[in-house]
Structure formats: structure tokens, C-alpha cells
Specification:
This protein is α/β, with parallel strands linked by helices. The protein has helices spanning 12-25, 47-64, 81-87, 95-106, 120-130, 154-171, 187-194, 201-214, and strands at residues 2-6, 31-35, 70-73, 92-94, 110-114, 136-141, 175-179, 198-200. The protein has eight helices and eight strands; from the N terminus they run E-H-E-H-E-H-E-H-E-H-E-H-E-H-E-H. It starts with a strand and ends in a 30-residue tail after the last helix.
Length: 244
Amino acid sequence: MKLLVINPNTSAPMTAQIAAAARTVAAPGTEIVAMQPDFGPASIEGHYDDAFAAAGVAQQVRLHGAAVDGVVIACFGDPGLDAAREATAAPVIGIAEAAFHAASFLATGFSVVTTMTRTCVIAEHLLHKYGFERRCRGVHGTDIPVLELEAAGPALVARIEAAARQALLQDRSGAIVLGCAGMADLATQLQQRLGVPVIDGVGAAVKFAESLAALGLHTSKAGDYATPLPKTYAGWTAPLGFQP
């Protein structure tokens, strides 16, 4: 089995970090192919960044999606998720959607601890889109810049732990969802410290993608996830269009 794991930002160190986290949980025999766009923001910390990241995800799926058994979008905003599902028949899993589902299996209510407070609204929009607004009891920003997670030392981990403890107390939650792919390698130690399930969306998405592929299930091509209509694309996007 081969899974394409897309880091929608252009940080090579973060792509490597995400790939390592994905390989840690992948089943024996699952090949993880980690990619990032060749354009766009170094980190995704707002709606403007998200727009270019979504285009980058679509680019990577268009170029590589036909050769894999599943796709993981490794950014908590799930940028380009619907476009990616149009562009390939392979199952496409966003890490936010995967993490919300996993948390709902483990607790009656969960809290999200993420990076920048300004991105909390993006997570809140996704909770409503996916139907988890009644299961999530709070979304909490730490105001840690995404790229600082590339080298998460003890002080930074302590800030995330403190925010998670406050969230558990304030929200009366039973689980924590980590709201950034860059936090993937922190889930195990935070779970040990907090004593509740701590869900990393990268790992959850990899396991869901493996399961769907193993079951022989594919993205439906009936309705709005049908293959994009053939048409001409202009400029640098010309190779990415679906040709007549």
C-alpha cells in the first residue's frame, strides 16, 4: 500500500517531521510518500495562507494522486480537501476531520489545542462543516507560531501541556485534539502527562486511509466528487487541468 502525505506548506523540515510521524504509525508494508507544493506559504496561519495551500494540495494530488492508494492532507485546516477528492479516486483524509472522528470514539466531549489564536475560527468552521460542533467543547490557541514546532523544546511542550490542562478543566473534556500537524510527535508524551487520550490527526488520518484502502473503498465519483470537467487552464496551472 502507498499513501501520499501532503504537507500543504513549503517547509521541508516540517514535511520531514510529518513523514516521520506518519511512518511511526503506518502498518508494515505501507509506503509513506511525503510531498509539499513548490509554491505557497512557509506556514499556514490564516485564511490568505489557506487559499494558496489549497491550490498546492490540488497540485500535488493532480500530479501524484493516481499512483497511490490513499491521500492524507497534513494541515489542520484541511485545505483543498474537496478539490483533492474530485481529483483522485483514492480516499482523501484531512487530519482535522480524522482527529475529530477519532476523538468522538474515545470521549463524549473533546477540546482542540492549536497554534495561533487567529486560526481557531478555521477549526470552528470545520467543526460545523463536519458536524462535530456538539462534541467539541472548546478550541484553544497557544499563539505558538507553526514553524517553532520544527524544534519543539521543553519550554514549548510545557506551554502546550498547560493549555491542554486548562482546556480539560475549563471545557470538562475527556480528550485533547492537537490542532497542528507540527504537533504530531508530541501526542505520546502529552498523553502520558495528561492521562487522557491525546489525538494527533496525522496518525489518525494515516490509519483511516489505510483502513479504507484495505476495504477496497474509493472516493465516490457520483455527484460533486466526480472528476473535474475537462477544460483549459492558463499560465503555470496549464499542466494541472483535466484535458478533453
